[in-house]
Specification:
The protein is an alpha/beta fold and 423 residues long. The protein has helices at 4-18, 21-29, 41-46, 58-68, 70-77, 86-98, 105-109, 116-129, 135-147, 155-169, 188-192, 195-207, 224-228, 231-248, 259-273, 284-293, 314-319, 324-334, 364-381, 391-403, 413-419, and strands at 182-185, 212-213, 252-255, 280-283, 308-310, 338-339, 385-388, 409-412. The longest helix is centred in the middle third of the chain and has 18 residues, at 231-248. Bound molecules: iron/sulfur cluster (2 copies). One iron/sulfur cluster binds next to helix 7 and helix 8.
Length: 423
Amino acid sequence: MATNGKIRETALNTYIKEVGGAVAAQLEACTRCGICAEACHFYLATGKPEYTPIWKVELVKRLYEQRFTPLGRLKVALGLAKPVSEAELREWVEYDYHACTMCQRCSLVCPMGIQIGDLIHMARSGLQAAGLTPEDLQQALDNQLEIGSPLGVDDDTFDERMEWIQEDWEVDLPIDKPGAEALLVFSSIEIMKFPDNIAAIAKILDAGGIRWTMSREAREATNFGLYAGSDELETFIAQRVIGPAKRMGVKRVIVSECGHAYDSLRFRIASLMGETLPFEIVHITEVIGELLDSGRIKIKPGVLDEKVTFHDACKIQRRGGNFDQPRQVLKQLAGDQFVEMTPNREEAFCCGGGGGVIATKAADTVRRAAFTVKIDQVQKTGAKKVAMTCSNCRLQFLDCVDHFALDWEVLGIAQLVADNLVK
Ligand code: SF4
Ligand code: SF4
């Protein structure tokens, strides 16, 4: 951790490095209308003014003013404004790391088009550079940098788990198979907590006739560099997928049910690396949609005879636009028993566990509080089954189902498809 006296300066310097004209213009465009507050599940669940989206970048704004604007500098010189203090930087750790999933729902409603989620990501980058990343998030990041996995999946663990999945689920998991057209990458959560998801996706790809492989080197797509707010570390970590994918000559990288891995690889990495990738990055939900549309796989109609609803994941649906494929699956499996939450699709509320929040113990209370917004949405549908396409959301749902003693069944879309394939 940076020494106390250097914390503010390090954060400030990182901010100065990161800030550009467009960001500065965004900060200056805010009219303080307050509309973004009602978009944020953390604010709605707690009513805490500090959880208003724009307040989460207030410190960044003050740093900017004090460094870049003559008026800001004059105010500090005349003693009319206090320079940003180290204690304030520590206070903002809660607002930017615990109470924001970078879900971008606030950006959607801002009449001035301010990308608040991106600004919060930038605020995190300053805090990360200052050594203020929450301890457990930092530990997960260190694990990923040192052994390639935030949850400690080293080579031996990976081999053991893949062998176990092949035997128990009776699936073939090709690893580093030459001539594959697609590389399939997973999140640590799936490898360690949802092995059934790995088996399910293997069954779907095999049924669809796709020549696919996993890779020992590129086995995990989770990216704690993104969560921490470091573009440099995010790029370094993503190279572990990009490098092997290039060498294997695949046409596609298929990201499994992990929203942030998909966001990083699909929407950020090419730009961070400054190059065009020689393959496309797709989410497994898109692949399922393609296979169903082309008739390469079929699923049994009407097998779900109870109400089921769908939770839109921020990165896979709002960001990725993959709204229709999971609904296509649920409409086939459940017919009229599929019911929508309100609001849904791009306006859906985040589950509250993304952006590294679920990996941060100190955020447990606020994370579970934020989930009460989701409880309200699901209860209004009357469904006891909730399906989703993101394992991180699934982890948050399972934790909160347990915490709030809810009688819900939490389902993954890939699992539903694999369990109901027409042979
Ligand atoms: S909605 Fe936009 S303009 Fe209004 S307070 Fe929030 S960031 Fe500022
Ligand atoms: S990005 Fe999401 S969690 Fe963060 S402030 Fe905006 S609405 Fe809230």
